[in-house]
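Before any further analysis, backbone shapes were mapped to integers, which produced the following:

***
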Amino acid sequence: MKKQDAAVAAAPILLVSGEVPHTAAIPTVPEGFKLMEGTSKNALLKASAEQRAEIDQAMEQLWEKRSALATDLGTLAPDAEAGKALYEKMIAAREANRKTHALAAYTEEQEALANHAVLAYLNRASGDVEHMAERNPQIADRYPRVLAVSAQRREAIAAGIARAKAAKADAKKG
């Protein structure tokens, strides 16, 4: 069995290896949300990943020593409750971001597996339609979209081969 045929045969098995989250269960951004742009975003203070532990420890220290801090700084003491709320929001945002990135990586992989399985299915179906159309040409007229996908794939492969040959020829010239 060729390597590609083995991959095609394994595709349905790979697909069942992970469930795709139900789209209704995935939260969306709040209505009206707009990404920050340019100078607004650039003006934000940044916290590098390498500095997270120190930031966490400093915020914990401020909370633990909030009474002493109030005595030490008097009217200059920051609002401890506000600091705690800000810190909790930062931690929640950090964890949500981590989970979201992990989910995005997972669903991208599931999409790649699903695309692979669907394309393998279409390739088999179009091959069978093409084969049967040789005997009965009317069959091709009943499945134009299936055959179009197959033709597009062949054209893309041919174009890729042509680009690779051209790049190889250019490399030899240079």
The helical segments are 3-15, 38-42, 52-64, 66-73, 80-135, 138-142, 144-173. The mean pLDDT is 90. The CA atoms of residues 15 and 113 lie 6 Å apart. The chain is about 75% helix and 0% strand.
